[in-house]
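Retro notes (design track)

What went well: tokenization of the new backbones is finally stable.
What didn't: we kept losing track of which sequence belonged to which structure.
Fix going forward: every design gets posted as structure first, then sequence, in one message. First example under the new rule, 626 residues:
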């Protein structure tokens, strides 16, 4: 190491990346105002009206309107809470009114008959065997567990909760996982059921496999589940004006809902709607801003206004019955009050996103193509982000309102040069997507993120932001002020052009540069969850046991090759994803199965972790990418 690089390294070690900085929101706004020549309106510019008369005006006013629109200072706000619950009650009232009139409207209008026919054609026959392949826990909290304990290991531990309508489905799902079955049937004295071991084996030897399964399912339903009325309504940050209401579902309801949601997602993919990819909507917004031929539509409170009778009327009986079984009919408010939902499902439900996408797709298609056997290929649907030919915009808005949905006039565009969809905004074909400051910039990691977003915004829009970037870098400790990373390698340091980066040569080869950057450490939480951890490892959220087994085999083979080249052995008690322990069980049938690899960090560990402090790490950057 040279003397110069040694001095830099010592300086970096002295700088605490978690120390507070002197960033000011007001000064940052003033710098942007000076750059764009636009005077922001309201606190932190959030009331700035959108000016679409020119590219420069649209770019600047959109930036100021959105920059701090999702800022969360972490402080309680009575006005936010009041607005949030007013919107919640308003959505329920909208659903109630839709429930009263929709059957009469739909039965006398051929339009809705054809919408239903389209949905029935896409869905086909419901199959529980297919849905069961997609069963899995969601990433959030549940009625039993808070967000802090949302890891799969917690959800596979303890007694799961379910609504009464979902109890049989939940019992059947648990019975498919022997370890989970043993866990939920565990009695207080430690036995797995009431029978002594020798008697249990003798009795089971006389029963057929079907009888054993039926008895197991009944035992789980009777003794292994906690029956609850429904979900719990909570709020999460949305914007500076209001929070967003979501529902924490019982864990077993979500487990079943995810399977149905994935079955709907698969069928939508067959008609060109890919709910795993937003880029088609984004390309549609770009095309609409260039030609004016496509309109973008956004809905207000779409999930909360999906009324019960609309779903009941539009869906086939077998699909509706499956959805109805695992939905939560009752919601518990923070005040303790319980309400019977007028909506069919809400955010937090495992199939809401797919269900609303299906209904919106069918409505859009029928508006554009009265012949039920035809499809308009330019239609794009991703949740409540819709794109249709501009000539059908007014007709679509009218039909959406008939079904109880309300388009957001501030985010729907059918004329002019501006379009927005799925997080991208375009003006006359130019990308003017803004960036956001969502949290207080107190530490170095947040400063890196703000600087890098400014840099990317300038690169995206063609605006010279070098002076603002230089001003932001001066707030950092001297050892961190120089750009270190090219874009695409994260936000662990300031990014910049290749010719201005400060990078060291890798000590063991010429193929890479070596750069110091910040990374957030992960701390494994303590807890005695042996069964939950093991089940979470073998039956992960995004992959079933075959996927995991294949990945384990592949990872073990790689590690054996590495071990064979070194003199040390890898401890068998540790797995190779970085956290915790994993079972050595690996079925032979999984070795040659041609399946995609799951996310190893999520599937193998199954262990709860939390974010720790930021620390300095080394990043390798290829000298010759590609």
């Amino acid at each position: 190491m040279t003397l110069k690089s040694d001095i830099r390294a010592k300086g970096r070690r002295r700088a605490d990346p978690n120390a507070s900085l002197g960033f000011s929101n007001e000064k940052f706004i003033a710098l942007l105002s000076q750059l764009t020549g636009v005077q922001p309106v309201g606190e932190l510019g959030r009331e700035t009206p959108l000016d679409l008369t020119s590219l420069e005006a649209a770019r600047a006013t959109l930036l100021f309107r959105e920059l701090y629109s999702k800022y969360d200072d972490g402080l309680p706000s009575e006005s936010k809470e009041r607005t949030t619950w007013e919107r919640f009650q308003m959505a329920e009232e909208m659903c109630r009114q839709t429930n009263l009139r929709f059957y009469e409207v739909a039965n006398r209008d051929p339009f809705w008959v054809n919408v239903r026919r389209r949905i029935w054609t896409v869905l086909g026959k419901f199959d529980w065997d297919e849905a069961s392949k997609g069963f899995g826990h969601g990433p959030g909290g549940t009625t039993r567990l808070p967000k802090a304990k949302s890891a799969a290991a917690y959800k596979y531990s303890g007694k799961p909760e379910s609504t009464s309508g979902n109890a049989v489905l939940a019992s059947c799902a648990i019975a498919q996982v022997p370890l989970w079955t043993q866990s939920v049937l565990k009695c207080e004295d430690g036995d797995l059921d009431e029978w002594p071991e020798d008697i249990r084996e003798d009795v089971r030897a006389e029963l057929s496999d079907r009888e054993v399964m039926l008895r197991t399912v009944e035992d789980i339903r009777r003794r292994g589940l906690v029956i609850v009325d429904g979900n719990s309504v909570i709020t999460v940050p949305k914007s500076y004006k209001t929070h967003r209401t979501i529902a924490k579902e019982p864990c077993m309801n979500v487990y079943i809902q995810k399977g149905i949601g994935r079955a709907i997602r698969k069928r939508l993919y067959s008609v060109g709607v890919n709910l795993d990819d937003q880029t088609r909507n984004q390309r549609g917004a770009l095309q609409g801003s260039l030609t004016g031929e496509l309109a973008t539509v956004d809905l207000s409170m779409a999930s909360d206004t999906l009324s019960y009778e609309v779903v009941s009327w539009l869906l086939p009986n077998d699909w509706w019955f499956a959805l109805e079984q695992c939905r939560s009919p009752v919601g518990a408010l923070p005040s303790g009050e319980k309400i019977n939902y007028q909506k069919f499902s809400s955010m937090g439900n495992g199939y809401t996103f797919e269900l609303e996408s299906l209904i919106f797709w069918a409505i859009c298609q029928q508006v554009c193509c009265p012949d039920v056997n035809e499809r308009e290929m330019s239609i794009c649907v991703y949740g409540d982000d819709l794109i249709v030919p501009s000539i059908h915009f007014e007709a679509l808005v009218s039909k959406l309102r008939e079904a109880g949905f309300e388009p957001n006039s501030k985010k729907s565009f059918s004329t002019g040069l501006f379009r927005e969809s799925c997080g991208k905004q375009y003006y006359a074909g130019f990308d003017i997507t803004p960036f956001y400051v969502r949290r207080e910039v107190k530490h170095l990691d947040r400063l890196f993120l703000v600087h890098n977003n400014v840099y990317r915004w300038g690169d995206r829009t063609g605006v010279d932001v070098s002076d603002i970037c230089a001003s932001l870098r001066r707030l950092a400790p001297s050892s961190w002020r120089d750009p270190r990373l090219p874009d695409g390698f994260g936000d662990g340091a300031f990014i910049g052009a290749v010719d201005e980066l400060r990078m060291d040569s890798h000590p063991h080869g010429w193929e890479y540069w070596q750069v110091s950057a910040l990374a957030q450490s992960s701390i494994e939480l303590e807890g005695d969850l042996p069964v939950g951890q093991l089940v979470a490892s073998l039956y992960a959220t995004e992959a079933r046991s075959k996927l995991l087994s294949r990945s384990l085999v592949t990872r073990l083979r790689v590690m054996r090759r590495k071990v064979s080249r070194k003199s040390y052995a890898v401890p068998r008690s540790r797995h190779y994803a970085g956290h915790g322990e994993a079972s050595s069980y690996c079925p032979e049938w999984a070795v040659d199965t041609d399946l995609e690899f799951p996310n190893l960090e999520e599937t193998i560990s199954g262990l709860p972790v939390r974010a720790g402090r930021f620390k300095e790490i080394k990043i390798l950057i290829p000298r010759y990418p590609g």
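Added context from the reviewer: The longest strand covers residues 609-622.
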